[in-house]
């Protein structure tokens, strides 16, 4: 019985470490996107408050899934299916 309790505690500890790692990783990615957005806005010569909400959302959105989908649809030539490329 004591051995099972120890195993449960060890499993919970491992799970907590995994969840903590993923939370921190996601937080770092979100922070990096926000920092990039702020830098882009500063380069444009405007303040964050001057930028409409939909533009702020677009600048901080995680596009990794979109990029994966695009990569998965590319042809052998590296283009998208309807590119009109002669290399098809």
Comma- or semicolon-separated keywords:
single chain, 88 residues, mainly alpha, 3 helices, 68% helix
What does this structure look like?
- There is one protein chain.
- 68% of the residues lie in helices and 0% in strands.
- It has 88 residues and is an all-alpha fold.
- The chain is flat and about 65 Å long.
- The mean pLDDT is 82.
Q: What class would the helix/strand composition place it in?
A: mainly alpha
H-E order: HHH
Please give the share of residues in helix.
55-70%
Shape: flat
Taken as a percent bin, the fraction of beta residues is: under 5%
The low-confidence runs, each spanning 5 or more residues with pLDDT under 50, are none
Rg is: 22 Å
Average residue pLDDT: 82
What is the fold's blueprint, element by element?
Layout lengths: L1 H42 L9 H8 L3 H10 L15
Q: Could you write a compact summary of the structure shown?
A:
The protein has helices spanning 2-43, 53-60, 64-73. By secondary structure, it is mainly alpha-helical.
């Amino acid at each position: 019985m004591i051995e099972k309790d120890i195993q449960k505690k060890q499993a919970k500890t491992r799970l907590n470490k995994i969840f903590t790692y993923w939370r921190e990783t996601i937080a770092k990615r979100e922070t990096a996107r926000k920092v990039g957005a702020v830098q882009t806005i500063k380069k444009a010569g405007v303040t964050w408050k001057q930028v409409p909400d939909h533009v702020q959302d677009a600048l901080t959105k995680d596009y990794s899934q979109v990029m994966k989908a695009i990569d998965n649809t590319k042809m052998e030539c590296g283009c998208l299916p309807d590119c009109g490329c002669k290399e098809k």
